[in-house]
Each structure stands twice: as C-alpha cells, then as structure tokens.
C-alpha cells in the first residue's frame, strides 16, 4: 500500500514537468520494443546497444527540430508575419500542440549531440532494465544548453550570441540548504572564471534581507576570494551582484584601496551602466571596510512594471497571505513552535525549535513534505483569487523546509539585472543563463519563473552546479 501511495503521490501534476515527461515517454517506446538482446552473446548485445542508441538519438534529433520550428513560429508571431500565420492551419507550433504547457525557447538545443555525450559517460543505451529517466532527460537538456553557449562563444559577438549573464539560486545550488559559501567551496573558482571572461554574475535568491551585511555573512567566502584575487580587474569584480527577495533588493560588490593601513578615497569606479559610482565615501559603505556589498537604490534598477505597484496592494497581499498561513497552521494542527515570519516584502512559515527536557537542549521542529505542499498550494490558489494580489506579482514556493510568499518573482529579478548591467543594450534572454534547483511547475518552486527571462540549467545539488560550470567554462 505504501508503494502505491508513493507512486500516486509523485504523479501529481504540480510535481511534474510535462516537457521532460513527454520526452521520457518518447524514449520509452524504443526501450520497451528493442532494448532486449535475444541471447547472451556479446556481439548481439553490442548490436542491441547500437540499435537502441541510434533510435534514442533519432528521437532527440526530431525533438531538436520541433524546438527549432517553435522558435521560428514564435518569432513570426512576435513580428506579426500575417502571410506565414495565414498559411498555418494549426494556429500553433506543433510542439505547442504536443505539449500544451510548453514555454518559450530562447535558443536552439542540440539534443542529439547532447544525448551522445551523456550516453558516452553514463551508458544510457546499454541499460536493459531501467528506461531513460527524468534525470537522464534533465541532464541531456542541460548538456544541450551548455553546448549551445560553447558554440556561441566560438562564433564570437559579431556572429553569435555569447553568454553575457549567469545567475544562480542560492540554497542547494551554490551551497547546501541553509548553508554559506566558504572559500573552500569548489564553485568559487568557476564563478571567478566567468567574471574573468567578462560574464556578469548575479545571485538571485529568495533570501530577503534589506541589509548588505546579511549577504556578506552568507557569501563571505566568495567576497574574500574576490578581494584577494589579483587576476581580476576591479570592474570585473564589480560585475558580481546579489538580487535578494526574488526581485526586491539589489546589492553589488565593491572594493576600495588600502594604503599605509588606512582606507583612502579612490577614484570612483564607474557603475555597470555608468549611472552609479562606488567609492569609499558612499554613505552605504562603512569607512573601515575594504570590500563587501553595496546597496543599489531601487529607482536605478527597478522595472517600470514594478514601479507602478501600489504599496497598499503589496501590504494587503502580505496581510492576506499571513492570515492564510495562520489559518493553515491551525487547520493542519502544526506545532506551536513553528513560527510565521513577516518581512517587508515577504511572509513565510519556517521550522521551529522545541526544548527537549531529556536531552536538555533545543531540537528542530520540522514540517513534513505533505504539510509543506498543502500549505504552498493552498496559499497560491487563495492569493490568485484575491483582488489586490491580481494587481501585482507574487511568488509562493516550497523551499524544502519552509514556505514563503514573496512580492515579485525571479523572472523580474533577472529582467532587472539584464537592464541594470547594460541600460543602452540590455542583455537578451538568449544571452542569459539561470542555474537553479527548483524548476518544478509553478506553485511549488521559485526558479520556475526564471524560465520566462532566460535559458536555464536544472541542477539537483551544489556538486551538479560545479559539474555544469566546469563544462561551461572549459577553454
């Protein structure tokens, strides 16, 4: 009975990515029909492997073409090409008809090449008992996206569209859940390598602090490493930003000079877009600090759509979300030690602590997976029918151990960075890559909206991040 429950639970629609599931279904057919040797001779087994490999590759080549056709169709729709649209009897691209929930593709994806690379490493086509899995398809999509940017880098800016911005989630992407970025973290050299290649780097996180010191504590290993690095120019170092609270607070790395053990004012370092200066006399920078994060005024980077949001609507949305969380806490009979926390631009329910008399210490009080998902889905659906919420944008997500409702979303955070880094020639979605671990359908994961603003890599751990960056930055 528990086995059946587990299967049914994982089939719930809010936990599935329909595009990946669709590809997985396509690959299941040749696996079922052909991934069986008729006898145990090695030569026949090798022939079976080769046959199944070619069929997997052929299917992914067809999907690759469907993506290419969808990009072309969407571009013609955007340009209102009436001649083309009138000739189309479908009214949609074929991929939209096959996968109705499919989103936008900003780049072509060489899926056949990506599969052959993954197969050479993981021997997917040599498996006889386990069909290509969700994770297999996820890795193939990631590898295809990496291959695309490697190709664009070789083409150069005159012909291609090289990578200009890489953004990262924080927890479970750069470091373990609730952790910090220490200098020994293997991801740091790759972030430095991106900066050295003049690629802008932004950390777009749900952690919502309005003070730079909180981010400096979480990322102290990275900023210490940057400060001590002699290969990067100051301009390259200052291409590191933190977008906190999804899209609510922007901070940028700064650095000042030290001479004769005293901090001296230096020539202003031009802002990324030429509009803001960073120097030791800035009121947001402690005169005794040599490096860290500087808060950037919201008027400088905020999108026009965000500037028209009513403060009353924002606070009413957070009030209603907080009220809903209290109702759910009572309905689900959650422990009293589990607190509900209200911030300026967010409200959430988080794990608590309880004093254990036998152990004579505080022990964690956690929420179960079922409780977390009940809370986030109820919160999402309730706010969608609340009028003030419809006039702004918000994000409800399950962080793995907590549930939050944030004002804004990661798509807006990434859009803001694209504009902030270059106001004259904003970075395009096809020149942007977001790396995160929460890309499940909306209502349970906050990286999902990042797909609206750029290309993405779906990872499952900090080690995954290291692996994909190693391939992305390889010379």
From TrEMBL:
Cofactor(s) needed by this chain: Mg(2+)
Q: Which domain of life is it from?
A: Eukaryota
Query: Which InterPro entries has this protein been placed in?
Result: ISN1
Q: Can you state which reaction this protein catalyses?
A: IMP + H2O = inosine + phosphate
Q: What is its EC number?
A: 3.1.3.-
One biological-process term from Gene Ontology?
nucleotide metabolic process
What top-tier enzyme class does this entry carry?
A: hydrolase
The task this protein performs is described as:
IMP-specific 5'-nucleotidase involved in IMP (inositol monophosphate) degradation.
Q: Which family does it belong to?
A: Belongs to the ISN1 family.
The record's subunit annotation is: Homotetramer.
Name of the protein:
IMP-specific 5'-nucleotidase 1
């Amino acid at each position: 009975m528990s086995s059946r429950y587990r299967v049914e639970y994982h089939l719930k629609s809010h936990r599935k990515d329909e595009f990946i599931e669709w590809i997985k279904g396509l690959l299941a057919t040749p696996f079922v029909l052909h991934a069986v040797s008729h006898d145990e001779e090695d030569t026949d087994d090798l022939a079976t492997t080769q046959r199944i490999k070619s069929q997997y590759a052929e299917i992914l080549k067809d999907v690759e073409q469907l993506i290419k056709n969808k990009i072309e169709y969407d571009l013609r729709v955007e340009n209102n090409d009436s001649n083309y649209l009138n000739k189309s009897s479908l009214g949609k691209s074929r991929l939209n008809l096959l996968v109705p929930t499919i989103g936008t593709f900003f780049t072509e994806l060489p899926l056949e090449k990506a599969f052959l690379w993954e197969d050479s490493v993981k021997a997917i086509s040599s498996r006889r008992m386990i069909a290509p899995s969700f994770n297999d398809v996820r890795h193939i999509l990631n590898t295809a996206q990496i291959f695309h940017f490697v190709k664009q880098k070789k083409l150069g800016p005159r012909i291609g569209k090289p990578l200009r911005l890489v953004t990262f989630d924080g927890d479970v992407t750069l470091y373990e859940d609730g952790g910090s970025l220490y200098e020994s973290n293997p991801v740091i050299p790759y972030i430095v390598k991106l900066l050295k290649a003049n690629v802008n780097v932004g950390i777009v996180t749900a952690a919502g602090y309005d003070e730079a010191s909180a981010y400096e504590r979480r990322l102290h290993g990275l900023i210490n490493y940057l400060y001590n690095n002699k290969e990067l120019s100051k301009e390259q170092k200052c291409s590191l930003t933190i977008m906190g609270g999804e899209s609510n607070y922007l901070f940028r790395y700064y650095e000042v000079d030290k001479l004769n053990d005293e901090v001296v004012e230096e020539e202003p370092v031009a802002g990324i877009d030429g509009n803001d200066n960073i120097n030791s006399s800035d009121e947001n920078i402690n005169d005794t600090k040599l490096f860290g994060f500087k808060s950037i005024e919201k008027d400088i980077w905020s999108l026009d759509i965000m500037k028209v949001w009513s403060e009353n609507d924002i606070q009413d949305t957070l009030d209603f979300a907080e009220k809903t969380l209290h109702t759910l806490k009572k309905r689900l009979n959650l422990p009293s030690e589990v607190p509900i926390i209200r911030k300026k631009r967010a409200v959430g329910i988080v794990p608590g602590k309880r004093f254990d008399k036998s152990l004579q210490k505080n022990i964690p009080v956690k929420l179960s997976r079922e409780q977390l998902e009940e809370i986030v889905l109820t919160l999402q659906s309730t706010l969608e029918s609340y009028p003030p919420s419809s006039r702004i944008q918000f994000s409800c997500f399950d962080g793995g151990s907590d549930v939050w409702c944030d004002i804004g979303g990661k798509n807006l955070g990434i859009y803001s960075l694209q504009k902030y880094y270059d106001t004259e020639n904003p970075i395009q979605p096809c020149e942007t890559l977001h790396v995160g671990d929460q890309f499940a359908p909306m209502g349970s994961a906050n990286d999902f909206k990042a797909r609206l603003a750029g290309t993405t890599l779906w990872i499952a751990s900090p080690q995954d991040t290291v692996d994909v960056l190693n391939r992305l930055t390889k010379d």
